Amino acid sequence: MIWFLRLFVASLMAACAPSAIAEDATPPSAQSPGAKSDENPAALRLLRLFSQFCLQKFPDDAAVASEANEVGAAAMPAGEVKALLQNDPGRGWTLDLPEGHFRIVLESLPYHACGIRSFGEAPLVSKLDLPLMKFHAAQSKHALSKPLLLPNRLNGGVSVVAGYDVINEDGSAISPKESFMIVIDSYVAPSDPKQKVETRLVRQIVP
Question: Residue 186 sits in which domain range?
């Protein structure tokens, strides 16, 4: 399975050069709003939720929580949040939509992050993921770094993280450090013998 995940994420890396997009460009997710798409509807919904919560509301935690309440998301039990974040503080919500079951996870300092998660039979990655991240960075005259691919072993599976730092147009670092991550976890859930693939889109800001 690891070779499949690497190949999938490698296709994303090729599309991400460290160049900015014009500030007056149209957000990629908003192009041709009525046009049909051959992409996985769940992958597109994952991206829209990422934009709605993690790009438009985060890092204002109160705004993220208010938006979750506005769309009718259910608060996750503390035990479920702890299972996701381990020892890091945070909170989360679940949202059931026609395209699937989604989790909105807000991680508190020191690793301040906003992520959207969902399971699928295959990685829920859209060809608009990186263009939208690049567009967001460009609004503050920033760009994205070359991607860093980090494969890792999970208990009963594998994980691949494609990480992109937000940088100045000349390639220098910004402060606070901001990054985007596309995380694909493939493992066999203890409660389900079938293979599961979870995709996470994450925006992280570290002071």
Answer: 2-29+39-206
Question: DSSP string spanning 54-97?
Answer: IITTTT-HHHHHHHHHHTTPEEPPHHHHHHHHTTS-EEEEEEEE
- pLDDT tens digit sequence for 141-158: 999 999 888 877 666 677
Task: Report how far residue 165's alpha carbon sits from residue 16's, in angstroms, rounded to the nearest whole number.
Answer: 11
Pairing of the two strands 142-144 and 74-75:
unpaired
Residue 92's nearest CA partner among 188, 202, 169, 12 is 202
Do residues 17 and 170 lie in contact, with contact meaning Cβ atoms separated by under 8 Å? no
Residue 34: inside a domain: no
Residue 201, C-beta contacts closer than 8 angstroms, at least 6 positions apart? 46, 47, 50, 54, 115, 116, 129, 180, 181, 182, 183
- Per-residue model confidence as pLDDT tens digits over 89-124: 999 999 999 999 999 999 998 889 999 999 988 889
Can you tell me the distance from the alpha carbon of 174 to that of 188, in angstroms, rounded to the nearest whole number?
A: 38
Q: What is the DSSP string of 26-42?
A: PPGGGSSTT----S-HH
Q: Is residue 25 part of a domain?
A: yes
59 cis-preceded (ω within 30 degrees of 0):
yes
**Alpha-carbon distances of 134 from 86, 88, 106, 144, rounded to whole Å:** 30, 28, 22, 6
Domains in the chain: how many in total? 1
Specify the pairing of strand 177-188 against strand 100-107: unpaired
Q: Both ends of the chain: CA-CA distance in Å?
A: 35
* Lookup: tokens for 160: 């691949």
